[in-house]
Amino acid sequence: HVQLVESGGGSVQPGGSLRLSCAASGLTASRCMGWFRQAPGKAHEGIAALGVLGEKIYESSVKGRFTISLDKTKTSLFLHMTSLNAEDTAMYYCAASTRAACSALDVRDFDYWGQGTQVTVS
Q1: CA dist 1 to 4, 83, 112, Å?
Q2: What is the β-pairing status of strands 10-12 and 117-121?
Q3: I need a surface site. Which of 35, 44, 64, 106 has the fewest CB within 10 A?
Q4: What is the pLDDT of residues 28-76, one digit of tens each?
């Protein structure tokens, strides 16, 4: 039973920082892990992904501001967010793919999802 549990969301002023965490359990093999977000009235947006070989993909609006990482046990995924602005306000989701490598930030490539954690920048 795969379970992904996000934490670390909250309210922050523009220019501030947050670090999101995702505790993963039940994954039987290493795989591409990612972060997505969904703002009210908008579709899910892929923002960062990390593959088993360490390759990273970032959406253009967060590149240079957000950093995705995995702890040594490979059971916790993080998203360190800096220089936050109002456009970053959304529900943030952790997701796991069935594939080892990350090819794109496409929701169709990810089969397991957490319940989300809210980030509000104002």
Answers
A1: 10, 36, 10
A2: parallel
A3: 64
A4: 778 999 999 999 999 999 999 999 999 999 999 999 999 999 998 888 9
